[in-house]
Amino acid sequence: MACGCSTTQQPAEQQKPTASAQVKPKPTAASRVLSPTPIHEKIRKLNSGPRLKTFPLIPARPRACAQPGLKTDQMRSVPARQSGWKLLSVDQKINDIMDVDVAADGAVWAQTVRVVDDDNEKIDIRRWHKGRWSTFERPPIGPDSVDAIYAIAAESARRTWVFGTTAPPGEDDVVSQMFIGTFEHGHWDDAVLTDEDTRELDWSTVGVASGWAKAGDLVLRWNGQAWLRQSGEPPGGQPFGQGHDMWALDGTARSVLRWQGTGWQQLKLPELGTRALDSVPEPWLTSVVPYGRDAAWVIGNVGWDMDNEEHDAEAIRARPVAVRWNGSSWTCTWGPMHRTFRDAAPDGKGGLWVIADQEYETSELWHLSGGRWTKEFLPAPAGQSFFVQKLIKRPGSDEVYAAGHVTGDDLVDGSLSEDHRGALWRTN
After folding, report:
1. Region 368-390: what's the mean pLDDT?
2. Mean pLDDT of all residues in 145-151
3. Which residue among 2, 50, 101, 148 has the highest number of C-beta atoms inside a 10 angstrom radius?
4. HEC secondary structure over 40-85
5. Which domains does the chain have, with CATH numbers?
6. What is the DSSP secondary structure assignment for residue 366, as one 8-state letter?
C-alpha cells in the first residue's frame, strides 16, 4: 500500500515572557533535507465505505445557555506560577509552522513556511524526530504543481499523508483537483482524484484526525488500507479525537456529531448567546475536546455585529465559551469580552489546553485543570514573544505539542514575516 486511495483505476500587545521563561533551546543535531525521489502518480476514483447507520438526534438539554453580563468572566483565568512547557526547537530556516500532527511514536510532521522574497513563500513538509528536523521535498505532480496543502496527518515516523489541490502552473482559471499524498518507503506517492465533487472544493473548513479527513462536504475514513468516501446521513464533519472517541463539528453552531462505531449521532447544542450591544448573537465553534463517548468540551465564541466596519476601531466584539457535555446535558462557561478561542487539545488528565487570542494578534495558552483556568506563557528566547498556530496531543500519551513562531516584533500575530522563526514546544 502506498497511494492511500484504493479504487478503480482510470489581538493587543503581547505580554513578554518572564525571566524564567526566557530560555534558549538546547542545541540539536543539524537538520537535513532529503532530495525528492521520482513521484509515483495515480489517477483514482474514490471507493465508498460501508453505508453509515442513522442514529436518533439527541435534543439540547437545556435549550439555551444562560449568558452572564458582558462584564462577567466566569473563567477568571490567572497566570500560572511556572510554565509547564518545554521549548524543543527554534528553527532559523523557517518563518512559521502552520499545521502539525504527531504520531504515536513521537514523530512530529509539520507544514512549514518560509519567505523567499516579497512576492513568494515556500511550503515544506518537515519531520521532527529524535531531536532534529528533516525536510521531505515534494516534486511537482506530473505537469501540475502543488497549488496548496491544507492538512497533514501523521501515522508514524515512516508514513504521513497530506491533503491538497493541484493546478497547472500559471493557469489560475484551470479547475483544481484534490490529491492525497502519501510519504512512505522514502518517497512521495500521490493520488489525484477524479470525482466531480473533489474539484474546486471549499477548503475553508478542513480537518484531519485519527483516520478521518474532511474537505468541503467530502468526508473520508482510513480503513487501514485506503481512504474511503463516507456515505450516509450525516457523513461526518471536521473530526476531533483519537481512536474510537471521535467527535466532529458539522459546520454549524447548532449541533455536534459523536461517533457511535457504525455512524454519527447528532447532538443539538443549546442556543449560545443572547442579544447584546444592540445586535443578535453570532456564535462560531472552533474545536471539540473529547473525553470518551459520553464526555466532551465544545470550544467556541459568540460575537455581535462582527462584520460591521463601523466597529473596526473598537475592541473585538466577542467572547469565548466552553460548553461541556456530561452524557446527558450541557453546561456553559463564559469567558471575558475581547478574547476568542481558537484551537484546543486535551491535556490527557481530564482537562484541556486552548489558544486564547486577543484582538486576533496576541495568542496565549489557557489551561483548564481541576475546574480552574490558568494562563501559561510559553518559553521563548530572551526578548522574544510567541504565537501559537496549532495544538495537538500525542496518541497514547499525555504529551501535548504546540507549534507556531517566535518573534521580537512588537506586533505578535499570525501573519507571515521574514523576522519570525518557526518554533515547536511540548508539555513537560
Report:
1. 95
2. 79
3. 101
4. EEEEECCCECCCCCCCCCECCCCCECCCCCCCCCCCCCEECCCCCE
5. 19-427 (2.130.10.10)
6. E
